[in-house]
Amino acid sequence: MIRGFSLVELLATLTLAAVLAAIAYPGFATWLLDNRRNAAVATAMHAVHAARQFAAMRGESMQLCGATDAAQCSGGLNWSSGLLLVNELGTVHRSLPLARSVQELTVRSNRPAISFEPGTSFASPATLTICDRRGSGAARAVIVSRSGRPRVSDHDASNRELRC
């Protein structure tokens, strides 16, 4: 006896798989965007902690800035290409690229660089806003206090909604 599936059974199975995939896709897409945004937030938090630690351990002023390449600060407010940790002489200590595969992810700062002073624990207060294609509702901010400590929020430092 020959055993197998009929064309009708195969088409019914494929239809059921297509319906299940269509139902699961929006949830998966949101999960994927959340994870990409959270990875950028974690990179920004790591960069702030590293800058603060370098300033304390090396006894020299450090700056965290956005960069278009891994060699120098861009001087702009768009930090989407990556983050650099440089000393007062411009020597790069760390280059932290952001995920290149995420074209819709943007990282914006409210200042061209965040400065960390040695010995005083002083930092220039700043906010890094991380947005994706979902806009302000899904945005996150990394807020750096005057003491150099970062925190993550879905509002800015004045408790207003983030703008992308």
Give the secondary structure arrangement, pairings included.
Layout: H1 7-58, E1 62-66, E2 82-87, E3 92-97, E4 106-109, E5 113-116, E6 126-131, E7 140-144, E8 150-153
Tag the structure with descriptive keywords.
alpha+beta, minor pseudopilin epsh fold, four-stranded antiparallel sheet, single chain, 24% strand, 164 residues
Q: What is the CATH-assigned architecture?
A: 3-Layer(bab) Sandwich
Shape designation: elongated
SSE-based structural type:
alpha+beta
Determine the fraction of residues in helical runs and give it as a percent range: 25-40%
Q: Reading side by side through the largest sheet, how are the strands ordered? A: 3-2-1-5
Quaternary state, please? single chain
- N-to-C CA distance: 65 Å
- Work out the radius of gyration: 22 Å
User: How many alpha or pi helices?
Assistant: 1
* Major sheet characteristics: 4 strands, antiparallel
Question: Which CATH top level class fits?
Answer: Alpha Beta
Low-pLDDT runs: none
Task: Kindly estimate the percentage of residues that lie in beta strands according to DSSP.
Answer: 15-25%
**What is the chain-wise order of helices and strands?**
HEEEEEEEE
Domain tally: 1
Q: Name the CATH superfamily assignment.
A: minor pseudopilin epsh domain
Mean pLDDT: 88
